[in-house]
Write a structure and sequence with these properties.
By secondary structure, the protein is α/β, with parallel strands linked by helices. It has 3 domains: 125 residues, no CATH class; 312 residues, LCP protein (Aminopeptidase, 3-Layer(aba) Sandwich), CATH 3.40.630; 110 residues, Alpha-Beta Plaits. 25% of the residues lie in helices and 19% in strands. The strands form 8 sheets. An 8-stranded mixed β-sheet has the order 3-16-11-4-5-6-17-25, sandwiched between helices. Strands 21-20-24-22-23 form a 5-stranded mixed β-sheet, with helices on one face. Strands 1-2 form a two-stranded antiparallel sheet. A hairpin with a 4-residue loop joins strand 1 and strand 2. It is elongated.
Length: 607
């Protein structure tokens, strides 16, 4: 519900319904245009509906009001503080003074003097919701408003904008505060929305055209946004989708383009989520999907996005025309920028991905800037644009749930957000390559880094002297000579890995790594959280060799005090951190050479 639905569209800008509360430093929604807000109020009597006023409350700026709340006012519906009553007859706790809203007829320069006074008295603080990370450059922009207020009308208004799809069974069942978060952002080429008739495939159900797997570490210190090329040849697994006719089982398709994991054969985003898990080993918690309008509307809502081009650009196919240097783009021009394939680099889809990453990085910086966070007009427009352009799974299909998610991500600093592109090579099976295949030598270490929360940027963490000494001692265990694989003896136990992990590891050790003196000992006596390797002092060279093969961190090395006798084997216990054979227990310290990266806090020029 907004000014337009209240019959006052000619006087009130919806953005002007947001006013600064000088007592809290937050912007709050004020819907009653006809009267001013009281300076302070107490909970109203449940029987009379009357409210009392503080005797020492200042009179300036107050307008006469009825003692009883009106049925159409924000106070009646939200209990003044924005929280909705539970039907007990009692109003919630009182709220501090909120200055009256501006009218369009008053002109841009004639805002409410009480609001101005409030701004002079106290600088607005950013609420937790307003600091929520908007990691895809706007897909979660509405969190800035949805997380910053609990006004019932705002909640209902933005909830009504969000479209949802039930992908039950495709994800993890929901993100958790003490675990890493994986969210798949999908941009489709479906021609929906006014002005988009000339884009995408005519009559198509839409493909997974732009795909970003956003991984946020367990400790929320860093995030990796991995772009997956639409033309990647991969296996699409069996999946279940809910259609108009009910639930449909859709058989998988081996060795086909990634982008047909959505839309084709009635596949829904849940099928794309399963494809990503099959590819990366990372379970996707939720998805967010947007169309062409998302870029146009969100870039306009924030007042434009700063980009830089290293040369003059005139691309008739996308419509992008820019002179060399910096620009601020929005709307159709912004869409042309992220769609162009022929303006930069080798004119491939991989170059376009890099251009999109640069655009999204800049948009993140723009949204998190003070000019956006402290502007109620921009916040409203941003939330309106994002929620209208967005489709999500039912697990996060409300403003409240999205706000909870946003607050989880709020502590990630843009300097620790890295956009990366999945390492690929031209498809060797095509005379003239039009598709790409996975570069496994680079991709597997990258997947391992994400699985183990290793940042692609350096994240400095404080550690005590005791922790530093322990770390130094552990790292020393990995230094020294390493035995030949043929001389390594080890017994493998499954102490928390997926079913069959011990046998899978045994086969990998013997057939791939040449560790022939290895044995599957079945399940461990008890589950363990971390994979460990127990060994005797005279087996240290064997332990270092096995640790290198397994990608086992120094913390997993457990040296004994007495030497082994005869042909005694070491003990490898696979813990809950074990993913699969051949995947390092912990990721490498740095991303493999050649991985395409864009850091979210840096401005670069597209060339």
């Amino acid at each position: 519900m907004d000014a337009h639905s209240r019959g006052q569209a000619d006087e009130i800008d919806p953005a002007d319904q947001w006013v600064l509360n000088p007592q809290t430093g937050n912007y709050e929604l004020r819907l009653d245009h006809s009267t001013g807000q009281p300076t302070s109020s107490r909970p109203q009597d449940a029987r009379s509906g009357r409210g009392s006023r503080r005797k020492d409350a200042p009179e300036a700026g107050d307008a006469p009001r009825d003692d009883a709340p009106r049925s159409g006012s924000a106070s009646a519906a939200t209990g003044r503080s924005g929280g909705r009553g539970k039907g007990t007859g009692n109003d919630p706790a009182p709220r501090a003074d909120v200055p009256g809203q501006r009218s369009r007829r008053a002109g841009k320069g004639q805002s409410d003097p009480s609001a101005a006074a409030g701004r002079r008295k106290r600088k607005a603080r950013k609420s937790g919701g307003k600091k929520a990370l908007v990691w895809t450059g706007g897909v979660m922009a509405f969190l800035l408003v949805g997380g910053g207020t609990t006004g019932y009308f705002v909640y209902q208004h933005f909830n009504g904008n969000i479209d949802t799809i039930d992908v039950e069974g495709a994800g993890s069942g929901g993100f958790k505060k003490d675990q890493a978060v994986n969210i798949l952002v999908i941009g489709t080429d479906k021609r929906t929305g006014s002005g988009n008739e000339g884009y995408g495939d005519n009559g198509s159900a839409g493909h997974a055209d732009t795909n970003i797997l956003f991984h946020v570490s367990k400790d929320r210190t860093n995030a990796t946004a991995l772009s997956i090329p639409r033309d990647l040849i991969t296996d699409i697994p069996d999946c279940t989708a809910k259609t108009e006719d009910g639930t449909k089982e859709i058989p998988g398709t081996p060795q086909t383009r990634f982008n047909v994991s959505l839309g084709q054969d009635e596949r829904d985003p849940g099928c794309t989520m399963r494809t990503v898990k099959e590819l990366t080993g990372l379970t996707v918690d939720h998805f967010m999907m947007a169309d062409f309008n998302a870029v146009k509307e969100i870039s306009t809502a924030v007042g434009g996005v700063n980009v830089c081009v290293g040369k003059d650009v005139d691309d008739p196919k996308s419509g992008l025309k820019l002179t060399k240097g910096p620009h601020r783009i929005q709307g159709e021009q912004a869409l042309a920028f992220v769609r162009t394939r022929h303006a930069f680099g080798n004119e491939s889809d991989l170059t376009r991905i890099q251009t999109q990453q640069q655009f999204l990085s800049s948009m993140i910086r723009q949204i998190q800037s003070s000019q956006t966070l402290t502007s109620p007009s921009k916040l409203w427009k941003l939330a309106e644009a994002a929620t209208n352009a967005l489709t999500v799974d039912t697990g996060i299909g409300t403003i409240q749930k999205l706000s909870d998610l946003g607050k989880e991500l709020a502590s990630v600093n843009p300097k620790n957000i890295t956009f990366a592109t999945l390492p690929v090579v031209d498809n060797p099976n095509e005379p003239v390559p039009a598709t790409v295949v996975l570069n496994e030598a680079q991709a597997k270490p990258l997947f391992s880094m994400m699985q183990n929360d290793v940042s692609l940027t350096e994240v400095k963490k404080k550690e005590s002297a005791k922790e530093a000494a322990a770390k130094k001692k552990q790292e020393a265990l990995l230094k020294g000579t390493k035995a030949d694989p043929a001389d390594v003896r080890v017994d493998v136990f499954n102490g928390g890995g997926p079913q069959g992990s011990a046998q899978e590891t045994l086969s990998w050790l013997q057939n791939t790594e040449g560790v022939l003196k290895s044995t599957n000992k079945g399940n461990a006596p008890a589950d363990v959280s971390k994979t460990t390797l127990e060994y005797a002092p005279n087996q240290a060279d064997q332990a270092r060799a096995l640790a290198e093969m397994m990608g086992l961190p120094a913390s997993g090395m457990k040296p004994g005090t007495e030497d082994a006798e005869g042909l005694e084997a070491m003990t490898l216990t696979l813990g809950k951190d074990f993913k699969q054979a051949g995947v390092p227990i912990t990721g490498p310290a740095k991303a493999p050479e050649g991985v395409q990266k864009v850091e979210a806090d840096k401005q670069v020029c597209s060339k």
